């Protein structure tokens, strides 16, 4: 699997990279750390002290917070300088997303505005549109929202029925229809609205200002969580949109929507890291105060196990998020020689669509795990709305639903990989076939080394072989009907997701060890050991699900052996490793890994 050149999106399944090639969060430069600190300070000073008021949707409060964030320069991080922004790298944006992610409902309003609310105009607007809207959006004078979903068109977003018809004088599109679940809907000034022109089969996109005639809103939705985030239905009733407000070309709206979602998914991965670290700190703070049976509950093995597992999943997620985010930046740099920076960004998000879907699913499920255990660690108090973990638990749940549900994203992981393979963007199918043809040889091999990282690479390489051999099996068996076998796709996606995260984590730890003066390497190895140990067991189960559901008949024994072998790993004393990880957290009394 040794290849050269910039890695392509999804290619990780057939290609290994070195630790030197990954970006790790420990490499943030001073400017990035300063931006992160500004975000932290903003949350501490402006947001966290007034969470109840935010959740009560006090009139004008969320908007004024966004405006204040604009004054601090926090809304213009991705916007080019010529439109009054700071034009930072995607990694820096991701760091800001992470920091703001600890802001509960504010985090949602912020990500919506700086992501899906503003970026369609940056990436697809013409010069006039950019000049008109971006400077106002970059400083928070105007707030943005994104209107794709309709009552009858959720996951199947292109099935929307909102219609745009050219007026008789050819100066306006007349918009009619209804949008649903629109974040920032209650106070946004600018909406990217997706609609079909005449009887088009695909969507077009329009920039719609709140001040245009014919727009009305339902009251705020009453939600399980993120109660402070504005979520409205919006009605367009003969709404007159100037023709110059079409975004991109006619019929390009669905492509715009998809590409913006790729970006949103990677950013969601970043966002949930911040929320997870915040919840871990709350968990350990409580565990270090609460006494039962005459001892702090943080001294109990069951609590240490939970604290450690929260850390392991979050640290692993973080490794994968910044690896992929840097890949986006590298791809932008490469493509920028041939097109504008904005086009290069769009190409890069599309290129890393597999990773984006993985981070969305793994990130949202990590946060759900972390907040669930945070409630559990706090016991009865965790169930009380007096405790912040109760809010965190409710607020987390939306992440598995928006930016494409996790069901849709799991399918996307496989669908996108197979399409890339079919287009020969990399050697997916021939590598997969080779592995199946040589299964007997592989099953005889062993790591033949005691070197820590060589062994880990050997095992993770085997996880890749497992995924590839199963891709070969199911592609042969189901051919074009594979996409209807969603249960199998889900299991395959879980294998690929876990191996991507495991590899990212391993490369981070290896890179950390190679740097001088980095302490705690033993703890990072503990994190890696436990993650790989558990991931192998999960993969084994998922692989068996794939195999038995495929009814491979005479191939079953061969594949069972392969599954057994490819999911072999070194034994780990997970109890002691988790205790060491938890003990550091308990001592620091704050997430500091
Ligand atoms: C709080 C909140 C904020 C939101 N903000 C915005 C916003 O700002 N802008 C915007 O445009 N939208 C927004 N959304 C909408 C969100 O993106 C959609 O809710 C989401 O895409 C799912 O669509 P749906 O709710 O119609 O569910 P459905 O599509 O009806 O899905 C229902 C269930 O069926 C599953 N399912 C659907 N199709 C398939 C399939 N092909 N295969 C397997 N399973 C499938 C889903 O995974 C899900 O479990 C928001 C939603 C919420 C709740």
Structure notes:
The chain is built from 21 helices and ten strands. The longest helix has 35 residues. The chain is α+β, with helices and mostly antiparallel strands and 593 residues long. The protein starts with 29 loop residues before the first helix and ends in a 5-residue tail after the last helix. The chain binds flavin-adenine dinucleotide. The site of flavin-adenine dinucleotide (FAD) has 20 residues, from strand 1, strand 3 and helix 14. Flavin-adenine dinucleotide (FAD) binds next to strand 1, strand 3 and helix 14.
Précis, in short:
The protein is an alpha+beta fold. It has 21 helices and ten strands. It folds into four domains: 25-143, Butyryl-Coa Dehydrogenase, subunit A, domain 1; 146-251, Butyryl-CoA Dehydrogenase, subunit A, domain 2, CATH 2.40.110; 254-407, Butyryl-CoA Dehydrogenase, subunit A, domain 3 (Up-down Bundle); 427-588, Butyryl-CoA Dehydrogenase, subunit A, domain 3, CATH 1.20.140.10.
Describe the largest sheet: 8 strands, mixed
Mean of residue pLDDT values: 96
Low-confidence stretches: none
Class by SSE composition: alpha+beta
* Annotated CATH topology of the largest domain: Butyryl-CoA Dehydrogenase, subunit A, domain 3
Strand element count: 10
Pick out its properties.
single chain; alpha+beta; Butyryl-Coa Dehydrogenase, subunit A, domain 1; Butyryl-CoA Dehydrogenase, subunit A, domain 2; Butyryl-CoA Dehydrogenase, subunit A, domain 3; eight-stranded mixed sheet; two-stranded antiparallel ribbon; 9% strand; binds flavin-adenine dinucleotide
């Amino acid at each position: 699997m040794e290849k050269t050149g910039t890695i392509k999106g999804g290619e990780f399944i057939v290609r290994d990279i070195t630790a030197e090639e990954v970006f790790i969060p420990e490499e943030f430069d001073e400017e990035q750390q300063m931006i992160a600190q500004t975000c932290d300070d903003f949350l501490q000073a402006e947001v966290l002290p007034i969470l109840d008021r935010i959740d009560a949707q006090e009139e004008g409060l969320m908007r004024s917070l966004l405006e204040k964030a604009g004054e601090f320069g926090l809304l213009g991080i991705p916007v080019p300088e010529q439109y009054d922004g700071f034009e930072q790298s995607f990694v820096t944006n991701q760091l800001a997303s992470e920091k703001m992610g600890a802001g509960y409902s504010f985090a949602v309003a912020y990500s919506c505005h700086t992501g899906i609310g503003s970026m369609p105009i940056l990436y697809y607007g013409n010069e006039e549109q950019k000049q008109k809207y971006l400077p106002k959006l970059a400083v928070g004078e105007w707030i943005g929202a994104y209107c794709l979903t309709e009552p009858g068109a959720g996951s199947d977003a292109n099935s929307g029925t909102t219609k745009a018809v050219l007026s008789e004088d050819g100066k306006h599109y007349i918009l009619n229809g209804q949008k649903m679940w629109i974040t920032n809907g209650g106070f946004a000034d600018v909406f990217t609205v997706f609609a079909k022109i005449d009887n088009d089969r695909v969507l077009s996109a329009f920039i719609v200002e709140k001040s245009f005639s014919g727009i009305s809103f339902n009251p705020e939705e009453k939600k399980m969580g993120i109660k402070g985030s504005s979520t409205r239905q919006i009605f367009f009733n003969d709404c007159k949109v100037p023709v110059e407000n079409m975004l991109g070309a006619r019929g390009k709206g669905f492509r715009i929507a998809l590409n913006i979602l790729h970006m949103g998914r990677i950013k969601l991965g970043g966002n949930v890291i911040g929320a997870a670290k915040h919840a871990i700190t709350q968990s350990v703070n409580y565990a270090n105060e609460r006494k039962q049976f005459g001892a702090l509950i943080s001294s109990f093995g069951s609590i240490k196990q939970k604290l450690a597992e929260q850390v392991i999943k979050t640290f692993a997620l973080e490794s994968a998020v910044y690896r992929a985010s840097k890949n986006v930046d590298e791809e932008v740099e490469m493509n920028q020689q041939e097109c504008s920076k904005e086009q290069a960004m769009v190409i890069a998000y599309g290129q890393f669509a597999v990773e984006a879907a993985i981070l969305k699913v793994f990130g949202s499920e990590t946060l759900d795990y972390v907040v669930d255990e945070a409630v559990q660690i706090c016991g009865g108090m965790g169930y009380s709305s007096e405790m912040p973990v109760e809010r965190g638990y409710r607020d987390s749940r939306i992440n598995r639903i928006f930016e494409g549900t996790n069901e849709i994203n799991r399918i996307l992981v496989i669908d996108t990989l197979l399409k890339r393979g079919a287009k020969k963007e990399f050697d997916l199918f021939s590598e997969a076939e080779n592995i199946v043809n040589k299964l007997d040889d592989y099953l005889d091999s062993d790591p033949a080394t005691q070197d820590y990282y060589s062994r880990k690479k050997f095992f993770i390489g085997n996880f890749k072989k497992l995924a590839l051999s199963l891709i070969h099996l199911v592609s042969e068996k189901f051919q074009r009907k594979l996409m209807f076998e969603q249960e199998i796709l889900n299991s395959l996606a879980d294998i690929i997701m876990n191996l991507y995260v495991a590899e990212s984590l391993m490369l981070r730890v290896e890179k950390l060890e190679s740097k001088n003066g980095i302490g705690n390497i033993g703890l990072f190895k503990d994190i890696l050991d436990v993650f790989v140990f558990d991931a192998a067991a999960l993969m084994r189960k998922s692989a068996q699900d794939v195999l038995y559901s495929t009814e491979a008949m005479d191939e079953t024994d061969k594949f069972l052996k392969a599954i057994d072998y490819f999911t072999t790993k070194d034994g780990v004393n997970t109890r002691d490793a988790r205790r060491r990880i938890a003990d550091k957290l308990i001592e620091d009394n704050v997430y500091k890994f």
